[in-house]
Specification:
- The chain has helices at about 45, 50-55, 75-80, 95-110, 125-140, 155-160, 175-185, 190-200, 220-235, 265-280, 285-290, 295-315, 320-330, 350-355, and strands at about 15-20, 20-25, 60, 65, 90, 115, 145, 165-175, 205-215, 235-240.
- By secondary structure, it is α/β, with parallel strands linked by helices.
- It has a single domain, classed as Alpha-Beta Barrel (TIM Barrel).
- The chain is globular and about 65 Å long.
- Bound molecules: iron/sulfur cluster.
Amino acid sequence: MLEGGGDAGAVRNVWSHRAGRWHKNPSRRLVDDLDALPFADPSDYFRYPFVRDFYRFTYPIMTGRGCTELCTYCVVPTQRAMYAGNGLPIRKRSPENVIEELLWARARFGARMFKFEDTLFLLGEEWVARFFALYRERVRLPFRGVARPAFLTDATVRELAASGCHSIICAYESGNEEIRRRVLGKRETGAAYLEAARRLRAHGILFQANNILGSPGEDLDRAFETYAMNVATRPVVVDSDVLRLDPGAPLSQLAEVRDRRPPATLINLQQIMYLCVALGLPQRVVRWLVNAPVNPLYFAVGRIAYAIGLKRSTGIPLVPFVRYGWHVARDGELVVEPDRWRNDPRPHAEALAAAA
Ligand code: SF4
């Protein structure tokens, strides 16, 4: 439409900037039937060999849109509010439609391993049973995915194991019950995470744990409850970050997270968390280590350890893994910016307009 000289001001979902003024068009209605959409085509990215060779082994797939949860640090509550009354917030593709996309990706891009990116992946035991029956019959490639403990029932973990699941990513976020449930809005109990880890391990499935450090109300003692939860479950890799919020996320409205600079102890813990968990270091040793000034050694050692763990967790062959990692490092993504943890309290739309 724009190529033909049309008016962007008439296109729903599109904002335009004309004569010094923003024109904000209303949102388009959400598509209820996801099977009607074309498959996501990564051709533009796959023109670059280092991207293509890496993502062939972690080919991203979405089985649905939306989420059953409303975590306070996530973009989902903002999206839910933006589209209220304008379509179904939670939508799932049919198993047959997802299988068709996997086969297409295998034939067209040489996909060798898939990554299911959405938290709806394992929603609904009937969907799961139907999907994996088809997967075993027609796809037969290893895969990994994201899952909440509530979805990792005995039956589902058996389906995962029988279908070639390499690893599962579980977001612990915090080992402290109050922070996880009351501050971050996650409903799972600590016991549910422990049980999910035990189940996956019993079926030979690796798992990655994601953590958030520096949530409101978290002091160093509470951060060490997260460390303890990781040590107790021994994930194959631990991905920790200091709290950073999407603009407009419910938690970003709290005064205490605005313009906040996390203490050095938390930044240090973030850098060396995985290495210390992998070595099973006692807390008293880790507490001593995190009292050092923020330093490049922790950063370097932490990154190397994380890369090794991630390599195991993803199953990506060495050459594409190192090549992709080299590009990421060279482009500066591994540099810690001083403003990295600054949180923007404005609603998403306002922040976008200001940045434009
Ligand atoms: S953090 Fe994950 S589980 Fe929570 S609302 Fe966002 S997508 Fe859903």
